[in-house]
């Protein structure tokens, strides 16, 4: 089933990571980005096939290379933006800091820093929206304090039974 937004996305030419936006300016699902990246990568891979390859194929060009680079950058950025919220979820759901650190291939201290930085950014966003008179989005004061408590807990025990206190 295709939606008008998916059809627009499918037809969109991507040359820069900033081209990867929904019509409303919001995020594009990672699965859509991966689908488009796979199409460009497939055409680029076809360039390696012999000139007398017996099947009808499309061979990639510079536009495919540029799109693959831009999409790869966009996907990497989107995934990195999710890391801290996934760290929060993992700790709240009972993972230890050592497990989270191993999953990210960083130290436990670096994982806690990542969570703290994310929480501070979410709190600043809340305050900015609040100051503008817009419905706040991000972390309110209590949520911010709860996330900082998770980050301060070196054993990952602040989350009990997958729930915040």
Fold and architecture overview:
The protein is 61% helix and 0% strand. The chain has 165 residues and is mostly helical. The protein folds into two domains: 1-92; 96-165, no CATH class. Helix 3 crosses helix 5, helix 4 packs across helix 5 and helix 5 (108-131) runs antiparallel to helix 6. Residues 157-165 have low confidence and may be disordered.
SSE inventory with pairings:
Elements: H1 4-11, H2 30-46, H3 62-92, H4 97-104, H5 108-131, H6 141-152
Helix pairs in contact: 2-3, 3-5, 4-5, 5-6
Query: Helix-strand pattern, N to C?
Result: HHHHHH
Q: Which structural class fits the helix and strand makeup?
A: mainly alpha
Unreliable stretches: 157-165
Number of domains: 2
> In one word, what is the shape?
elongated
As a percent range, the share of strand residues is under 5%
Helix content: 55-70%
Chain-averaged pLDDT: 90
Offer a concise description of the structure.
The protein has 165 residues and is mainly alpha-helical. The chain contains six helices and no strands.
Give a quick set of tags describing it.
165 residues, mainly alpha, 2 domains, elongated
